[in-house]
């Protein structure tokens, strides 16, 4: 189990001491089933899942996002978190194997394995950045003693390795989440409220629940969304995920990513004028639309 703040401490250490690898950085590595360590790295490991990881994995398994989160994930919580995170839950046996490991064959969801499984033995560190600033993220080599692949003679350039592992697609779809997670405004000054964290959790990771939220509440009566967009988010998970990020940015920082319907804007304006200083019941993340996500584990003690 991940200790409270262990991830933040690890991140701080990497940002401080980790040797950084650019796109042309080189390293030696080859992973194959003849190595004595084959499958070793798929045990007792902390794998953070991105929203796109969850989307790909639940789709590959043919189950709703809520069921995926309940069956395969740990949702740690502490008061210092800037945004919700999700970890893959290892099996509860002596070996603590990944639930998707099939011995001796290997990963049973290989085509849809998470981002961090793809980049290994490279890790990605992403310091906070200012809005519009250059992305300061970088890759670094993870040196695990048990990994014999690092002693193989095959040399890779970082960009070549990432390409070989299908990472560019994950980076393209993951950039919305990276932008959000690295945004220095998130958690600056004051933490998100529990209600905001719950809403963020739903939009980021529980896409099928978010779809019900969009289509089964007054959401679309509040926002002006083009008909073809509505049809896209009804059926396409990737489009729904992108739409969710637009709503988050609108709700958290009032960015003009979504358009409030004129009649709703007029009601909000009238309410604000009638009660100066009061917070209008706008379509923000703090709206009491939902309950705490199922399966959440409070590790804050
Ligand atoms: S430990 Fe390294 S070489 Fe061995 S299976 Fe895992 S990634 Fe491959
Ligand atoms: S998802 Fe696949 S590659 Fe990643 S830890 Fe699990 S079995 Fe290994």
How are the strands of the largest sheet arranged?
Answer: 1-8
User: Rg, please?
Assistant: 21 Å
- Identify the bound ligands: iron/sulfur cluster
Number of strands: 10
Quick one: biggest sheet? Answer: 2 strands, antiparallel
Q: What separation lies between the terminal Cα atoms?
A: 14 Å
Please give the count of helices: 12
The SSE order reads HEHHEEEEHEEEHHHHHEHHEH
**What percentage of the residues does DSSP assign to strands (E)?**
5-15%
Q: List the domain count as a whole number.
A: 2
User: Which regions are unreliable across 5 or more consecutive residues at pLDDT < 50?
Assistant: 286-301
Query: What's the mean pLDDT score?
Result: 87
Q: Give the class from helix and strand content and strand pairing.
A: mainly alpha
Task: Write down the overall geometry.
Answer: globular
Helix fraction by DSSP (H/I, runs of at least 4): 40-55%
Oligomer: single chain
